[in-house]
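new request in #modeling-help
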Amino acid sequence: MNQESEIDDRNVESEHSGDGTPEAGLAPPPVADAGSQTPEVATTGAEKLAEVIVVTSGKGGVGKTTSSASIAVGLARRGKKVAVIDFDVGLRNLDLILGCERRVVYDFVNVIHGECTLKQALIKDKRHDTLFVLAASQTRDKDALTKDGVERVLTELRDDGFDYIVCDSPAGIEKGAYLAMYFADCAVVVVNPEVSSVRDSDRILGLLASKTRRAELGAAPVAQHLLLTRYNPSRVATGDMMSIDDVKDILGIEVVGVIPESEGVLAASNAGVPVILDDESNAGQAYEDAVARLLGEQRTMRFIDAPKKGLFSRLFGG
Amino acid sequence: MGIFDFLRSRNKHSASIAKERLRIIVAQERSQRGAPDYLPLLRREILEVIRKYVNVDMEAVDVHLENDGTHSVLELSVALPGQPPGMQGLRAEG
């Protein structure tokens, strides 16, 4: 589906821009009644406001940063103007996954403290003209982020005409995670089919429903989407891993994407190229599908069935 | 299924065990969600008071907070020993 050469910089978005995607920003989760839950905050009046997407999970190491990078790139490839912000103060990593670590001069905290302008701190992606990265600070000061500061940055991004702001949350439920989700319109909850990840995700879903600005204002709730990562269809088939339906049943929200466990993910982070740009890998294609679904497209889930076994492996197990 | 699968069928249905455990713990944690932080302490102190008079189990006190729009109802159920399953109820409003 992606005929364009991904290696070729700066020409990727043209065919996708502007067509087919609903104006009201991200689609509400499929479970919701389509009529009643349009994210009205995203389209107040004539001027379209940027949609704030938080990528969160509670548990660490489940693939938040990998997912943030791929979602941001996926949106930018469709011609959207996207800012992706690393909220993990003290443990900056998004820049590595996006391959721009050597171009970080100013960071999120510098902007909040007024030590530079937002424009100076935004790093333009080498591959996509409409993608900008705001790196986390490496300071050890846990209180470096403030709610006012974050709000100012988000407002300025909106005023600058950004379509989407992707907030890469740190693990845990401390201040960084709280601030990453506070202003969100939409949440992508990254979950592995594994007990501690699922439990932590449920905790996060509870916080999204109570500790966000939308919750406090009594506005339409933050739209919640599950993104299953490290999914291994063969292990699901043998009963050693929870299935998509198992996780969906427990958490009670719809699944926006299933990313199979794939060698491509490590290869992509090694290279500093988000895995969504690797059309060869199943994970890359699955991220592409997930972004399409976030934008309201209907796509059937791929890579969720175990590969067919040959006679040999059927006899001897495999 | 390979013919040698019996050799490694040790943790055959671990996924269903995981699901069952999660179902229970998630339901329990959801029921406590949004409840004030003092509820566990309240529960413990009530239990201590009751234990001065009756020897009840740690699990005997069940604290529920229900939000009813304008007011919330704090419901306490205390299972006393040596009585039929129908619980002796205490109710307080606040």
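bot summary: The first strand of chain B starts at residue 61 and ends at 68.
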